[in-house]
Amino acid sequence: MKRTGDQAFIKELNKSIVLNLLRFHSPISRTQISVQTGLNKATVSSIVEELIHEDLVLEIGHGRARVGRRPVLLLFNSRAGYVVGVDLGVDYVRIIVSDLSGEIVAVREFPLADNKSPQQMVESIVHAVDDLKAELPSSSLGVIGMGVGVPGLVDYSHGIVLNAPNLAWRDVHLSALLENYLNLPVYVDNEANTGALGEKLFGVGKEVSDLIYISAGTGIGTGIIVNNELVRGSQGIAGEFGHMTIEAQGLKCSCGNHGCLEMYASERALVQKYRQLTGLACSSEDILARLDAGDADALRAIQTVGQYLGIGVANLVGGLNPSLILIGNRLSAAGEWLLRPLEQAVQNRCFTVPYTQLRIQTSSLGRNACAVGAASLVLHEYFAGPQTAA
Ligand SMILES: [Zn+2]
Question: How far is the CA of 216 from the centre of ligand 1 (A)?
Answer without folding.
Answer: 14
